[in-house]
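pls design
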């Protein structure tokens, strides 16, 4: 109401005039001085009511720690055809590079020498570009690719390398009142910190200071509002507004299909933990909570 009143009054001011009237809750404002006094009194009343009636929702920050897929899925036939088409179009629209231009020049020179049009003394190279390419192609044919299959136990939810083709999210089992619930590592926001700092503190307080994670942004990626169990509610709070921040577990290297996570559990904060994929979340989390995570990852 206060915002509506102020905007309408300032609209009157912009219209000009030395004397105008506005009636609100039986209060008559007849000049700019009265308007200023009325607005100050109105703001004071609102602040007084707000201090007496704080929000019943606790502000929280949580971290959605993501382990990216470790290996790529096999391409479908459509994807293979599309890649082949794009490569062909790129080849047809490209121009010759220096290697190709030199190879054409050398080939023409050798043909002219064989036909007697030019002398062999004009040959300014010992090994031609074409000879190099023939050696490379032969070595490629003799190359045998070797791969090692990882023997992973996908039933072990504590293994960060399980289900290497899927996105995994770290969830923790926490005590909420007399109940235990699965949720993201979460902490209450404190006045001396911003929300991202609260999310970082949530990760270190649950998983330890050895955790190596890269946060995406200073802004949250998602939001979730929920009520506490009845036995966990207080006179101050009935629930929480949770701001979710995305963070990623870094890969060991680009050539190694594994991830590492140095976990130092605080049993007072986290009773258990699990790395879960999208199709497994609803077995642990409530549907609305799971959906909030789906929207920012998958």
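designed seq:
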């Amino acid at each position: 109401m206060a915002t509506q009143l102020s905007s309408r009054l300032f609209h009157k001011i912009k219209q000009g005039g030395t004397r105008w009237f506005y009636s609100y809750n039986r209060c008559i404002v007849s000049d700019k001085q009265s308007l200023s006094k009325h607005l100050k009194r109105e703001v004071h009343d609102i602040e007084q009511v707000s201090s007496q009636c704080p929000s019943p929702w606790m502000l929280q920050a949580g971290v959605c720690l993501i382990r990216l897929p470790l290996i790529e899925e096999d391409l479908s036939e459509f994807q293979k055809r599309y890649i082949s088409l794009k490569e062909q179009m790129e080849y047809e629209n490209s121009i010759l590079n220096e290697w190709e231009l030199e190879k054409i020049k050398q080939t023409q020179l050798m043909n002219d020498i064989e036909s007697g049009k030019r002398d062999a003394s004009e040959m300014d190279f010992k090994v031609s570009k074409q000879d190099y390419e023939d050696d490379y192609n032969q070595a490629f044919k003799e190359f045998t690719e070797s791969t090692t299959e990882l023997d992973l136990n996908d039933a072990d939810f504590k293994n960060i390398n399980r289900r290497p083709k899927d996105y995994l999210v770290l969830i923790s089992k926490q005590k909420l009142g007399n109940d235990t619930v699965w949720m993201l590592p979460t902490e209450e926001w404190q006045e001396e910190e911003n929300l991202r700092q609260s999310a970082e503190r949530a990760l270190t307080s649950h998983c330890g200071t050895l955790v190596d994670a890269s946060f995406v942004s200073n802004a949250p990626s998602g939001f979730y509002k929920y009520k506490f169990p009845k036995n966990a509610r207080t006179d101050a709070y009935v629930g929480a507004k949770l701001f979710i921040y995305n963070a990623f577990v870094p890969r060991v290297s680009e050539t190694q299909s594994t991830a590492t996570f140095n976990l130092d559990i605080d049993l007072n904060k986290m009773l258990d933990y699990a790395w879960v994929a999208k199709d497994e979340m609803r077995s642990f989390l409530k549907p609305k909570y799971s959906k909030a995570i789906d929207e920012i990852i998958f």
